[in-house]
Amino acid sequence: MSSLNQSLFPYDSSSLTVSSSVFNPYAFLSNRHHTLTLTLHTSQHRRQMSSLLPQVAKNKAMWLNPKVLGFNPPERWGHSACFSKGLMYVFGGCCGGLHFCDVLTLDLNKMVWSKLTTTGEKPGPRDSHSAVLVGHKMIVFGGTNGFKKVNHIHILDLVTKEWVRPECKGNPPSPRESHTATLVGDERIVIFGGSGEGHANYLNDLHILDLRTMSWTSPELKGDLPIPRDSHSTLAIGNKLIVYGGDSGDQYHGNVHMLDMTTMTWSKLSIQGSPPGVRAGHAAVNIGTKVYIIGGVGDKRYYNDVWIFDICNFSWTQLDIRFHQPQGRFSHTAVAAGMDIAIYGGCGEDERPLNELLVLQVGAEHLNGVYYIPMCKPFGTYWNQEKKIIPGEADANSKTLLVRNNVEAFGKGAYEVASEKLPPYHFDSGVNGDSKRVG
Q1: Please, where are the H alpha helices in 304-399?
Q2: Is residue 248 within 8 Å of residue 202, measured between CB atoms?
Q3: What number is the average pLDDT over the span 151-169?
Q4: Keyword Repeat, does the record have it (predicted)?
């Protein structure tokens, strides 16, 4: 694996495995490992759990609602988000007919929002575009300003804060929105699907941008192609693209398709377990070989659930969320930092834009009754402060929660824990640190 590829995918499956060791069945907090634990102190619970000891623990998680400092960004949906070196970069989006072209940063170590001042040939206001992070370059493609869809490439250098619009060779994808852009390896960006100009013009074409030559190609595809769609998700694991969900105007989709980037062959996967159903406008991230699907909209329903697709055994599992869950939403973004997933913005169940930040911490429910969550490095820096006990109901069925002191938590029943000609462009990612495609 090249140094660039290593920096883009710094986590292997072993480093991303949640500990499954058994803890003492009383509230336990380890400062050294930055853990968050929860114990259910009831005799009934202990009897129930003891009968389940031979069984495998279920996947569990908890939503947190961090206190965020700095200015308050406008609500938005249809924006993009990328994560690199402790910072989440948000670009564009829409709110009430107003389209944005600003770049926001959220320091996930300090939980502080900032506005990034940029120079150069900035992209115009837009939503439903894509953004891919390669080294210290954020590559933006497509989108719409509500009247016109575009197919331009803009690149923001996160070091110099300068935008450029490179001239690319070959035939670019047609103008589109609500497509996906996915980094494969360290030098190819794959554009798939979306909706083009005109009414109900849903797409299932595929285009590749070679970052070495800045040239577009449209390879010949074989196999069982996905139905044309937009608002789907596409993630790369190795040389495979995983496509889930989407909207074709008259129907939502819930199948999983895989593209082998070596043979350029599509296949429709046969999946084990109960599927999450049809949906679009969801957020998706991969951690190791697991793809996390968060929220979205389906047939007359807004989702707030989280599903895991395991690429190793082609199986679906619903993540069991403890305590209060956020409202359903769509057209939001998600970025992964270690074992934590931060989601931002989107449209809520009343179809009003949101600007809240939520953090999903992925953990495991241990069979002795202790709830254990590892704090990932980027978030742990700021949260590793004096511990704080949040009291709940003082009865036999109460829950004792140990959390860091900048996470809001509440008592029982009220948890929030929740186009001009341009000179030839040479792409240089300049990767020296860790960065990762997300969103």
Answers
A1: 377-383
A2: yes
A3: 98
A4: yes
What count of Cα atoms within 13 Å lies in the side-chain half-sphere of residue 77? 22
Q: Are 319 and 362 in contact (CB under 8 A)?
A: yes
What burial class does residue 351 get, using C-beta atoms within 10 Å of its C-beta: 0-12 exposed, 13-18 middle, 19+ buried? Answer: exposed
Alpha-carbon distance of 374 to 361, in angstroms, equals 8
> How is residue 119 written in tokens?
């120079």
Q: 184 with 241: CB under 8 angstroms?
A: yes
Spatial separation of the C-alpha atoms in residues 348 and 316, rounded to whole Å: 25
DSSP 90-137: EE--EETTEE---EEEEETTTTEEEEPP-EESPPPS-BS-EEEEETTE
For the stretch 186-245, pLDDT in tens is 899 999 999 999 999 999 999 999 999 999 999 999 999 999 999 999 999 999 999 999
Task: Tell me how far apart the alpha carbons of residues 68 and 406 are, in angstroms, rounded to a whole number.
Answer: 9
Length of the chain in terms of residues written: 439
Residues 6+ away with beta carbon under 8 Å from 71: 113, 114, 115
Q: Which of 376, 375, 403, 374 is nearest to 390 (CA)?
A: 403
Note if the pTM is more than 0.85: no
What's phi and psi for 368, nearest 5 deg? -90, 5
What helix, strand, coil percent values describe the chain, rounded to 5? 5, 45, 50
User: Across-strand partners of 131?
Assistant: 140
Q: Which amino acid is at 259?
A: L
Domains defined for the chain, CATH in brackets: 63-363+419-436 (2.120.10.80)
pLDDT 10s digits, 329-386: 999 999 999 889 999 999 999 989 999 999 999 864 434 333 444 433 344 443 333 2
What is the per-residue pLDDT for 235? 98
